[in-house]
Amino acid sequence: MARNTDFRVLGFGLLAFGAVACGGDPSVDELSANALSANALSANALSANALSANALSANALSANALSANALSANALTAAALEDPLAREFLTYVVSCALPADAVVDMTIDGAEYKFPGSLGLAPEWGRDGGHCDETCQRWITACVLARVDFLGVHRIISVRGASPSLHTSWQELRDYQDDEATYFGNLFAPGAPKYACLGPGKKEIPRVCGDSLEQCPMEVVGSCTRACSFQGPAGGFVDCSSSGKARKPEVFHESVTVFLPKTDM
């Protein structure tokens, strides 16, 4: 079951989180306060195998509470979490959904794992009887997609959007000025649509896609200035379209824009 844990250390709030066990998955470090997040989710963890064949799908995951009891009670989900890719995916789902004072502790195939929260985009999902509706699914998807890293490198990013959970400090605005891309979609819906649009003036997303947009684990729909309706005061693009043209056909209000440190520019 979820329990309260304080992972704050210094500065913006250095949080240690990850799916951790003796001889198991490596931990992931995250600067989470003020929406500063580490990212190293592999593209493989977004694959059909990790999400569908292993039962981490809408019916098996989002329809139930994001808690150890609910995850363990569902036989399909419990079996799926024996796969390291499924645990990797769940690590980021929990980190995006639950606040920093929550941790989902689970015993999987005899090993102890911890899945800590961080950003708190959908805290209600972790409560008794909780579930993840379409709005929740879209927020979690945008957050998870934003944290894919082509090389699997843990880097600090600034994630921004129209959710109060993504509050941005002036220090973050000062230090993270490189508008990389905006991410949106719904990993829990049929077909698991995944989209990204490019930051102003950008032609590639090397952190996520490597040397070519053709290698992206998501569909890149063009420039965010064209695909999204407007850009918020902190720089996050809002109401982004799957067509690459604002307001049609499907618009995702729940989008996450990533800014990189200005030294990376």
Name some characteristics of this structure.
265 residues; alpha+beta; 6-stranded mixed β-sheet; 3-stranded antiparallel β-sheet; 14 strands
SSE map:
Blueprint: E1 2-3, E2 14-17, E3 28-31, E4 36-39, H1 48-53, H2 58-62, H3 68-73, H4 75-80, H5 84-97, E5 103-108, E6 111-116, H6 134-146, E7 155-160, H7 170-175, E8 178-185, E9 194-198, H8 206-209, E10 219-223, H9 224-227, E11 228-231, E12 237-241, E13 251-252, E14 256-260
Helix pairs in contact: 5-6
Précis, in short:
This protein is an alpha+beta fold and 265 residues long. Helices cover 24% and strands 25% of the residues. Helix 5 (84-97) packs across helix 6.
Protein described:
The protein is α+β, with helices and mostly antiparallel strands and 265 residues long. The chain has one domain (2-181, 258-264). Helix content is 24%, strand content 25%. It is built from nine helices and 14 strands. The chain has helices at 48-53, 58-62, 68-73, 75-80, 84-97, 134-146, 170-175, 206-209, 224-227, and strands at 2-3, 14-17, 28-31, 36-39, 103-108, 111-116, 155-160, 178-185, 194-198, 219-223, 228-231, 237-241, 251-252, 256-260. Helix 5 (84-97) crosses helix 6 (134-146). The radius of gyration is 17 Å and the shape is globular. It starts with a strand and ends in a 5-residue tail after the last strand. Mean pLDDT is 81; it is low at 1-34.
